[in-house]
Amino acid sequence: PPLGGGVFTRYTHLFSLADSFNPPLWTLHIELYGSFLVLLLVAIRAGFGGRLHAIVCGLSILVIGFRPLSLFVVGHLMAHLPLSERWHQLTRYTVVRYSGIALVVLGIVSSAHRGEYLNNRFAEAMQKIHIDWTDSFHNYGMVGALLLFTGLIALPSLWRFFETRLAGFLGKISFGLYLTHFPILFTLASAAYLISQGSQIPSLVASMVGISASFG
Predict the structure, then answer these.
(1) 134: exposed, middle or buried (Cβ count in 10 Å: 0-12, 13-18, 19+)
(2) Which residue has the higher pLDDT, 106 or 118?
């Protein structure tokens, strides 16, 4: 069967995010489960060593499947890389830095461009390795996140930006922004789009209203 997280979904009563009215608010249980999962993995690594930790991480990804919750496991596994001296030595190689740049660009493209042609090619590729691609909207977001984080970890020169006050502020408000932007998108931003349809730039007007209201 495809790696769709069917076993985990069945026993935790989770449903597809594609059917949610407000997915950001309805993913709070995933945030909670993911936090407990990361704490459990940290405890296993500290108490039982790396071998059991690696086995549990691998089994977790297999059971969860290609679903947002699996990103918690991947993030947990990648978190130690920026602290590793060996990794810092690898990032000095030109090929690693250029690979990081390519991954960041691909992450942005996969997050922003979700055309039918690209989606069909992704779906065909995923089917060959038995990964469910029916929820393409969220799957693209997951792929984009994986590419972006992997690319950024390979680019220590960009880490300094994320240590600035601006980056800290954006990080502080990011989760609240994530939770509230969806209802604003379907109310104020949609209204602005309909009202400005007589102009040449209704999408720009709607975007400006939606972004301003969300940050406010």
Answers:
(1) exposed
(2) 106
